[in-house]
Input
Amino acid sequence: MTDHYRFRNVARMEWIKLRTLRSVRWTLLFALAGMIGIGIAAGFNTRNPQGDVTNNILVGGALGSVLFAVLGVLVMTSEYSSGTIMATLAAIPNRPLVLAAKAATFGLAALVAGELVTFAGFLAGAAFVHGAVPRPALSQPDVLRAVALSGVYLCLIGLIGLAFGTIVRHGAAAITALVALVFVAPLAGLAATPAGQFLPELIYANSLGATKPVQGFTLSPWAGLAIIAAYAVALLAVGGWLLFRRDA
Amino acid sequence: MIEAHGLTKRYGQITAVDHLTFDVRPGLVTGFLGPNGSGKSTTMRLILSLDAPDHGTVTIKGRRYHGLPFPLREVGALLEAQAFHPSRSARAHLQALAASNAIPASRVDQTLQLVGLTTAANRKAGQLSLGMAQRLGIAAALLGDPPVLIFDEPVNGLDPEGIRWIRNLMKSLAAEGRTVFISSHLIAEMALTAERLIIVGAGRLLADTTVAEFSAASESLEDAFLALTSGGADYRGVPGGRPPRSAQQATRSKQ
Output
């Protein structure tokens, strides 16, 4: 018996909360179905034998990353919209500890789920590659890295979503801000600029999930991963500070 | 034992709680009475460290809430707004809270039974009736078997049977020696439930008295309450003090 609540107590609470919401399971199932469906379509329709076949198959990650990001937002904002946050913070007044436990449990769940849906999508898509196009296999180191890091990316974008939800607190506003900054900004011309290789979604599409070099992306996939992880940590730190400072 | 000292909370230009000093003692039900918007809910949020006061302190047995080692085992609270996710079951909600404060999982079913929610435990909390949702909130408050209990407007929207159930529960909790602090804007309900009254208006203390004393000087409790809360908010009651002049005047002018 310890004399004070600890991280593991808070993590257990957060894990129970996470696994007892059906919407979480449905979102992950939707991500799985989407990644498999898009992977098959992309694998089947790839015609260019010289192209980056692995990257084509992983294009479903664009959908997956939106879903994981939104899930991350909702893990926090649903507490505010339902009032659960008051029960949570009355149970654990140490607010940075609450966010740390939430990030740890959701992050771990998102990592496992992210790898699962990415590998499933890749294997399904690769099975449908045909004709003169070489079939990618996980035995190729670049392919394995691209698939594995894409799964990690889904976890990190989910954590970025969690941070947005903590900072903004209202679901719709947080999702709008997140989609605008992470998913729309790259389309609005930033992709062609040198800033492009510092944007998470572009790092993912052109570096993490690619097996062939893309012009303008000189950083290694691992450096790209570190940049995205740094975004997640920095945003969570801002969220934790605001959670600590603001009234519930 | 809850002790508030000089508690003050402002939201922008509005002073919700204004230099509030009072204590709530164990072994009896203390009513926290005041019109809507008089600062009762804010005071309860300050007690629970959900909001931070601008000035003053509030402690539970001499300790700040956010310093409590296992808060749910020290203080149980039912807040006015529902504090659970509508698509999570009542049982899962309580399981999560129990885990956070290292409360044995067996306590979840015990508490569900105590409030009469056993058969509805696996239903989505959002599908519970108002009365059942209130029982879930009370179950969450009782989960850690805490010596201090805080209920914000517990009978709001309940039917007579639910009101009586809560009233008897409050009294039995106090009889067990617990500190029971209930807010309400309904003087008649407080007269039936509470022994002590802390009366606030516009965030300020208007009276700190007992039900017996408060009603003695007026024709009825309701007269005394309305006179007190509609008049100037300048009366500062002391324990055992008399109701303010304005209450006596109001009674006289009616005769």
